[in-house]
Specification:
By secondary structure, the chain is of the alpha+beta class. It has one domain. The protein has 4 helices and 6 strands. The longest helix has 12 residues. The protein is globular. The two termini are 25 Å apart.
Length: 146
């Protein structure tokens, strides 16, 4: 889980472990990121900066993962053409929903200096997911509350 403390230079919780060598995003991770980028807030046509983030996905690799949830750390090529305008850091976009057992869950994308750095996917009760949740559960959960 990314925190404001991490952006201040502090390390992540001990539940994170490195992936060495970094691996490509798997199909589910790509689906989740695509869904997050495709779900605009308010009345926007798309999440601002999503075109740049989509370009970053061509080079995206998972360099760390959390053992207690489905969150991953992401490294991308820092090509200036792919950097989001203004180089934002921190929370980027999110979706909520309900897991198959009814527990609330969320997915959040984080950036640092305009580049994608993390996909956080957690359940509200902090328990591990039994399976990777169907991305449509996030969309459906969000659309019910919109």
């Amino acid at each position: 889980m990314t925190t404001d403390q991490e952006f201040a230079g502090m390390s992540k919780p001990s539940t994170w472990h490195p992936i060495d060598p970094p691996r490509p995003l798997n199909t589910w991770e790509r689906q989740m990121i695509d869904l997050l980028l495709s779900q605009p807030k308010a009345c926007m046509d798309e999440v601002p900066g999503s075109a740049m983030v989509r370009r970053q996905l061509h080079s995206a690799r998972v360099d760390e993962a959390c053992s207690c949830c489905l969150s991953i750390g992401i490294v991308v090529d820092h090509a200036p053409a792919n950097q989001m305008p203004g180089g934002p850091s921190g929370f980027y976009t999110d979706l909520g929903g309900d897991d198959v057992d009814g527990m609330s869950m969320w997915a959040i994308l984080f950036t640092k200096d305009g580049y994608l750095v993390e996909l956080e996917v957690q359940r509200a009760d902090g328990t591990p997911f039994r399976l990777e949740p169907d991305p449509r559960l996030f969309y459906d959960g969000m659309s019910e509350n919109s």
